[in-house]
Amino acid sequence: MTEFGKQSLQAILQDLKPRSHFSYRQQKISNKERNSGIFLYGFPGNSPHPLLIIPHQKGSNIAATSVDIINQTCKTCADESYTVDYIFCLTSLQVIPVSHVTNLHGLALIAMELALRNATNTVSGIKKSLNGTAFDPFALACLENCLELYSGSVRTIVDSIGAFVSEHYVIAKVWLSTVMEAVATCEEGFAEKKGEVPPLTKENYDLFQLCNIALCIIHLLTPPLPP
């Protein structure tokens, strides 16, 4: 198993539960809603997915507060899970403009939308690779398996977002964990042949980290069980 995959999958995937269907759709908001603490945000690029409603903060100290919440969230997640890369977390969230005017719920949505964009772009990249001549039959078979895993992951992340916005946090965490298992499986497939260099290591690592960050934030938002 890959270094980034083996560290947490056993612990994270112990309590996988049956899936239900959730979906989320594009929504329109009024100026009144925008002023009340909601921000409609679409990520750059040709994403086929709906825009998300991202909660945002108001006030003169937004900049300082947003930097603090991003830094503190990433630090907390890195402290609680040795599989969370603090620098990756910080840089990934900070480059998204709306992250500087949001709260913890918004950061979770941003991490999941980044994961969705990563998975969608990787599906496109794998399809191009399968149409090329750069890989031998073994690598092509691995890429076909990864394509299936990533295509399923796109749908699972969409369901995770739907579960999260519906406040079904446990289900959202289960599905994010499923995506993390899928990218580890993709990476491991190439290791079955000695000397094979996996062509998707960066994509796999990035998606694993983004889902792990979202997983941690949702855990922070999950109410504790009653005694």
Structure description:
The protein has helices at 3-6, 9-12, 31-35, 62-80, 86-94, 104-130, 137-165, 169-190, 201-221, and strands at residues 38-41, 52-55. By secondary structure, the protein is mainly α. It has a single domain, classed as Invertase/pectin methylesterase inhibitor family protein (Butyryl-CoA Dehydrogenase, subunit A, domain 3, Up-down Bundle), CATH 1.20.140. The protein has a two-stranded antiparallel ribbon with strand order 1-2. Helix 6 packs antiparallel against helix 9 (201-221). The protein is elongated, with a radius of gyration of 18 Å.
Question: How are the SSEs placed, and which strands pair?
Answer:
Layout: H1 3-6, H2 9-12, H3 31-35, E1 38-41, E2 52-55, H4 62-80, H5 86-94, H6 104-130, H7 137-165, H8 169-190, H9 201-221
Antiparallel strand pairs: 1-2
CATH superfamily: Invertase/pectin methylesterase inhibitor family protein
Q: Can you count the helices?
A: 9
Q: Report the helical percentage.
A: 55-70%
The whole-number mean of residue pLDDT values reads: 77
* Order of helical and strand elements: HHHEEHHHHHH
Shape: elongated
Distance between the termini: 37 Å
Which CATH first-tier class would you pick?
A: Mainly Alpha
Provide the CATH topology.
Butyryl-CoA Dehydrogenase, subunit A, domain 3
The CATH architecture: Up-down Bundle
| SS elements, strand count | 2
* Structural domain count: 1
Share of β-strand residues: under 5%
The main β sheet shows up as: 2 strands, antiparallel
In the predicted model, the low-confidence regions spanning at least 5 consecutive residues are 1-66
